[in-house]
Write a structure and sequence with these properties.
Layout: H1 8-16, H2 22-40, E1 43-46, H3 48-63, E2 75-79, H4 106-113, E3 117-122, E4 134-135, E5 139-140, E6 142-143, E7 146-150, H5 156-163, E8 169-174, H6 180-186, E9 189-192, E10 212-217, H7 220-231, E11 248-251, H8 263-278, E12 282-285, H9 293-316, H10 322-333, H11 336-356, E13 362-366, E14 382-383, E15 386-387, H12 396-404, E16 408-415, E17 421-427, H13 433-447
Parallel strand pairs: 2-3, 11-12, 11-13
Antiparallel strand pairs: 1-3, 4-5, 6-7, 8-10, 9-10, 9-16, 13-17, 14-15, 16-17
Helix pairs in contact: 2-3, 5-6, 9-10, 9-11, 9-12
Length: 465
């Protein structure tokens, strides 16, 4: 029975109706993991015994007539940054290669209560830093659509596992694009929620954290179903509908000239935007002034990293990758004047963006400035002929919107002539997460790129060994 590419919404409903068992669904996904994971390297810790026991227990609860949760019986692998009691969680760092937490992260508690079957953990960069998934513990995660290309990051393992049919839903997290960038690279959906929508422990700074947990799926509806659980808000699970003919959206291919973007990205997205316009949407070329966003993001990120990892730097400097050391030290070098300036810039930025959204339902933009790049690179060093100053610079299409705190969704939109996925980013007003999902569902229906699957079979030899 082939179930591994069925939508999560449909699978969950079929399990509840007892048309298929949780055991059967798990078995189908375990077969898929066995077939594809050696080449893709998306799931880095696999616990078949635990998953089998949980699937059996899920079937027993249904047979006994017990009330079950909205994700009952669905297999999932959790991002390796998120603590899972009794299951190895390495954060992609050699310092934690054998770390087994004793407590679940709050989102794992919610997912378990909703009925998921945990199969393992998905790969992430070291300490989650960067939008390309590789680390010294497990190596590089490869793109199922092109095994020589990056799957993005830091939720790259989650996105690649979804794209390859290893799991039907995935949790991830996002600071500067870590849900959206891999979703774009792997032709799946990723939502960065508004701050506070998904609670996962206290912020390491006095401000709302730049980092947030969030959902991923192969469809917008599947992503919304998972969001309902993560946010504890059933309204996200209601059917998504937005008439394109009643939409007024802005489109910016380069954030108002702020960022270099590869021509291949714009050439892929412009036909998708035209199709949305042809479906009745009012599409206007426009963008708010986002010039201050990069400074806000970099200052707050550096401050957050120092608060989170400063002790680790003091105790294990030699074991941390150079980018981590540099970013933590940048946080230590910040002065009160730097923080005050970032705070004032952020207030002005939010005011400008809020005014912009009085005129538009959403802003459409590229998710990434580049198409999926060579998996053996650390990061792109230039974009459209412009040299990148560091490993953060090429992520600006996502990190800019992280600084605004607006909800942002990556939806499959197009493919390059070489068959590489390109996602469209939908940014909405602060707090309007469901509206962003509704618009995403409308665009998903217009573009239909999300139904294109990776080539079969996945060939381990093509991954370069």
């Amino acid at each position: 029975m082939s179930l591994h590419f069925d939508d999560a919404v449909d699978l969950a409903a079929a399990i509840r109706r007892k048309e298929v068992s949780s055991r059967e669904v798990l078995a189908a996904h375990l077969r898929r993991i066995e077939d594809t994971n050696p080449a893709v390297n998306a799931i880095v810790t696999l616990d078949v015994e635990r998953a089998s026991a949980e699937a059996a227990a899920a079937d027993d609860r249904l047979a006994a007539g017990e009330e079950v949760g909205p994700l009952h019986g669905l297999p999932i692998a959790h991002k390796d940054l998120t603590d899972t009691a009794g299951l190895r969680t390495t954060y992609g760092s050699p310092l934690f290669a054998e770390h087994v937490p004793t407590r679940d992260d709050p989102i794992i508690t919610r997912l378990r209560a909703a009925g998921v079957v945990t199969v393992g953990k998905t790969n992430t960069p070291e300490l989650g830093l960067g939008s390309h998934t590789f680390n010294p513990v497990f190596g590089v995660t490869r793109n199922p659509y092109a095994l020589d290309r990056s799957a993005g990051g830091s939720s790259g393992g989650a996105a690649a596992a979804l794209a390859a049919g290893m799991i039907p839903i995935a949790d991830g997290s996002d600071t500067g694009g870590s849900l959206r960038n891999p979703a774009s690279f792997c032709n799946v959906v990723g939502l960065r929620p508004s701050p506070g929508r998904v609670r996962s422990g206290p912020s390491p700074t006095p401000w709302p954290s730049l980092s947030t947990k969030g959902p991923m799926g192969r469809t917008v509806a599947d992503t919304a179903l998972l969001m309902a659980v993560l946010a504890g808000d059933d309204s996200f699970a209601a059917p998504l509908h937005r008439d394109p003919g009643r939409l007024r959206v802005a489109w910016t291919p380069d954030l108002g000239g702020l960022l270099p973007v590869e021509p291949a990205v714009i050439e892929a997205l412009e036909p998708a935007v035209r199709r949305l316009q042809e479906s009745g949407a009012d599409v206007v070329l426009d963008c708010p002034d986002l010039a201050a966003a990069d400074e806000v993001f970099r200052v707050r990120r550096a401050w957050q990293l120092e608060r989170s990892y400063g002790t680790l730097l003091d105790q294990h400097r030699e074991a941390l990758k150079p980018d981590a050391v540099r970013n933590i030290e940048q946080g230590r070098a910040l002065t009160d004047a730097d923080l005050d300036r970032a705070d004032r810039l952020h207030t002005a930025l939010q005011r400008q963006v809020a005014e912009f959204f009085t005129r538009y339902d959403a802003l459409l933009a590229p998710v990434s400035q580049v198409v999926p790049f060579d998996a053996d690179l650390v990061h792109p060093t230039s974009v459209a002929g412009v040299e990148m100053s560091d490993y953060l610079a090429w992520m600006g299409a996502c990190s800019t919107f992280s600084a605004t705190h607006c909800p942002a969704l990556s939806v499959p939109a197009a493919f390059t002539p070489e068959g590489l996925p390109v996602g469209l980013q939908i940014v909405g007003p602060l707090g309007q997460d469901r509206a962003v999902l509704e618009i995403g569902a409308a665009i998903e229906e217009v573009c239909r790129a999300g139904r294109r699957r990776p080539p079969e079979p996945v060939n381990p030899a093509a991954a370069g060994g």
